[in-house]
Amino acid sequence: MINRRHFVALGLAAASLATGPALAAGGWPTEKPIMLVVPFPPGGGVDQMARLIVPFVQKHLPGANIVIENRPGAGSQIGMEYGFAAAPDGYTLIGVTSPAMMTIPFDRPVRYKVDEFTYIANVMDDPGAIAVKASSDIKDLPDLIARLKASPESVSIGHTGVGGDDHLTTLELQQAAGVAFNVIPFNGSAPVNTALQGGHIDVSALNVSEFVQPVADGTVRVLAQAGDARSASLPDVPTFREGGYAFTVGAQRGVVAPPGLPADIQAKLVAAFKAAMEDPEFKETAKKLNAPIHGLYGDEYRTSVLGIDARLNEMWKTNPWKNQ
C-alpha cells in the first residue's frame, strides 16, 4: 500500500515550490498559479498521484506554480464538472481516474464529456486484484473458480463500490469464468479489508498497491491480478490472463484539461509531465512509495481512456451493473 506519510512530505515540498522565487514575467504559465483540481478528498489515490507528480512537473515547467485544490463530491462528479467548464487557458487542470469518470454517466446525468477533455498524461495504472485471508482454505484461482462452478454464489466477494474498477474486476471475472459470486459492495477499501480479516467476506477485490503491505504483513494471499503483465510490486502473483481469463482492469490516474486547450499549451504540459516521469528522482520516490507508475501522454492517453470507455459501454448494454 502506498505510504501516505510520504505524501504529506511531498505536499509540503509542493507548497515550498509554490512559494519559492518570484515567477518570471511573461505569458503562460507565469501569469498566475495553475490549479490542479482533485475531485476527491485528500489522501485518496488521485490526491496521492497529484502530490507525487506536481513537484517534478514544476521542476520541468519553468515559472509554473501548481496549486492542488480538492473539490470532492458525488463520486468526483462535482470536481470534474468544475474543471470541464473552466476556461481552457492552461491554468486549470483536473486529476481524474478511470473507470470512475466513465461509469458515473451511466448512473446519472453529468455536465462533462469524457471524449472532450484535453488529455495531458496518465501517471499511475494500478491493476485490480483479488485476495483471500492468509488462513483461507481457498488455495488459488482454479480452486476459487471450481467452488463457484460447483455452488454458485457460495463465495462472497467485497469491493469498494458499484461502478468502480474493483467492481469491474469482479464483473469481468464472473463473465470470463461463467461464475457468480455473492457480491457485497462497501464504501472504500478500509471496510473491505476489515470485512476480509473479520471473516465477513471470503474474497476482497482491490488494487495491487492496496495489497502490497498486507502481503508483506502476512495477512492476505493474492490469488490473481488484472494487469496485462505481472506487477513489479507483487511479481509472484499471476495475472488472470495466465489463468485463461483474457481481461484487464485497473485504476488509471492521470491529468486532463478543459476542452479547447490551445495545442501549444497542451504540448508544453505533455512535455513537462513526460520529463517529470522520466526524472530519476521521481522514479526513485515512486519506487519507495510502491506507486504503480505508468506514463501515457496526450493522444496516447486519450486513446487508452476512450478504449476503456467503449468496453464499459459494451458491458453496460449487455449486463448493466447498477444493482449488482
UniProtKB/TrEMBL annotation:
Keyword Signal in annotation: yes
Name this polypeptide is given: Tripartite-type tricarboxylate transporter receptor subunit TctC
Family: Belongs to the UPF0065 (bug) family.
Signal sequence segment: 1-24
InterPro entries reported in the protein's UniProt record: BUG, Bug_dom1
Gene3D superfamilies, per database record: Bordetella uptake gene, domain 1 (3.40.190.150), Periplasmic binding protein-like II (3.40.190.10)
Pfam family for this entry, one: TctC
Keywords assigned: Receptor, Signal
Ribonucleoprotein in keyword set: no
Organism: Ancylobacter vacuolatus
